[in-house]
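As noted in the main text, all predictions were made from sequence alone. Below is one such record, for Metallophosphoesterase family protein.
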Amino acid sequence: MKLALITDIHANREALEAVLDHAETQGASQQAFLGDFVGYGADPGWVVDTLRERVARGAWAVGGNHDEAVVRGPSPQMHAEARHIIGWTREQLDPAQRDFLAGLPMSRSVEQMLFVHANAHAPAEWGYIDSRGEAMRSLMATRARLVFCGHVHEPRLYYLSTVGKSGDFHPTPGMPIPLLPLRQWLVLPGSTGQPRDGNPAASYAIYDTEAEMLTFHRVPYDHELAADKIRRAGLPLRQADRLLHGH
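Prediction:
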């Protein structure tokens, strides 16, 4: 099975459409969505409906902090701009769409895989995996051999060996990486809807469960249209600029 790992869509219809089309051309038959489906972008309703349809057909999904904020209200830690966007997003969603977000689990385990938005050691606290130390903290908190996380908008790969050796990679798009069975792995696919590594192309990854190979992908999309939609919706201009420049 080829599993598409998609996260941090952030209400970006154009990016999600491009990634779903690309994943299909790569032979991905299953999807795992790792949270933050809304927030920042201009198409929250379309994105939520698309996710609902995919989940109804068997895709796996977990919730993110922006999804939770739309349902329960923004946390005090969210900056003013994000809080404003959360309020706008909530107004765009109907009760059924909000109920879908409210029903998303914090994490999901499938065989040797763990899917979670932020991290494995304290998923409800929404801490970022922004260092090797934080990645090891998550890996040591679970028995899962493969941990797939979102939240961080840059693609990255970490591992922990059976003798305690750790490492990390900045992956090269399109280059398959063997996930050696004697290691634990933590995968950050990068953001589909709002990349922040200087590359505006949508980011996601595919895991081949039979070959045990992981491939990161970057998919160009019409980010100018997505940015224009943000401007026309009256959302903060900085969010449009982020799509244009990838940071």
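Residues 2-245 form a domain with the Purple Acid Phosphatase; chain A, domain 2 fold (CATH 3.60.21.10). The helical segments are 13-25, 44-56, 65-72, 80-92, 95-102, 132-139, 223-232, 237-245. These features were considered when defining construct boundaries for the mutagenesis experiments described in Section 2.9.
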